[in-house]
Amino acid sequence: MMQNRLIYIESVVLASLVLLFGTVAYQRNFVWKTEETLWSDAVIKSTNKDRPHVNIGNSYFKKGLLDQAMVEYKMAVKINPVHPYAKTYYNLGVVYEKKGMFNDATDAYQQALTIKPGFLEALDNLGNTYLKMGHINKAIEKYKMAMSIKPDSPEPHWNLGMAYERKRIFDKAIFEFQKYLHLRPDDAQARAKIGNLLFQIHASRKE
User: Fold this and answer.
1) How far apart are CA 185 and CA 178, in angstroms?
2) Domain boundaries of the chain, sorted by first residue
3) How would you classify residue 36: left for phi > 0, otherwise alpha for psi between -120 and 50, otherwise beta?
């Protein structure tokens, strides 16, 4: 009789533990269901930390939800204004640039560069934004700075070539596209660019 009672108690305890751990596992699985729910949970538990907002912003950005991403990045900067992440300002700049808010984008990229002066992507994107705004000389300056930091990075050469093409300085544009092609020899678009510019130079000499 006593033995049967002990077996019953053990069964009840075991069933309770299974139910408890099952509930905890379900709740954790729900939290991990999506990136947004994961980091939203982190925001609730750590209201004074900027990293969860950055991660939620990244998740929104990957899905093309730019307005939501912008809100989260701004919140991250607001929470940590003294020692913000350079990448947070960079991400904010990318969002602004994609939304056509070019003045805000340049401000954000410059903030990123203040925190991390050698931030290659921020320099390159700042140049791209200036180019979109028609500030070609400013764009050229930023591309050259980016190349001085990492000469073997192909993007600054491509972008500098585009800037020189806009200024109709075709020989310099070709030079930069050739440098880009040396770093990315399989890029058919770069070969086409060089061919088109050589044709324009030849045509202008005939006039």
Assistant:
1) 9
2) 1-33, 152-206
3) alpha
Least trusted range by pLDDT, from 3-12, 33-42, 166-175, 197-206: 3-12
Contact 94/126 with Cβ under 8 angstroms?
A: no
Per-residue pLDDT reduced to its tens digit, 71-96: 999 988 888 877 778 999 999 999 99
Helix (H) or strand (E) holding 47: none
3-state secondary structure of 88: helix
Q: Does domain 152-206 have CATH number 3.40.50.450?
A: no
Q: Give 124-185 as a DSSP string.
A: HHHHHHHHHHT-HHHHHHHHHHHHHH-TT-HHHHHHHHHHHHHTT-HHHHHHHHHHHHHHST
- What pLDDT, in 10s, does the model give residues 123-170? 999 999 999 999 999 999 999 999 999 999 999 999 999 999 999 999
> Are 113 and 125 in contact, with CB atoms under 8 Å apart?
no
Q: What crossing angle do the helices spanning 154-166 and 188-206 adopt, rounded to 10°? A: 30
Q: For the chain, percent helix, then strand, then coil, each to nearest 5?
A: 80, 0, 20
**C-beta atoms surrounding 114 within 10 Å:** 12
Identity of the residue numbered 117: P
Predicted TM-score (pTM) of the model is 0.76
DSSP sequence for 94-105: HHHHHTT-HHHH
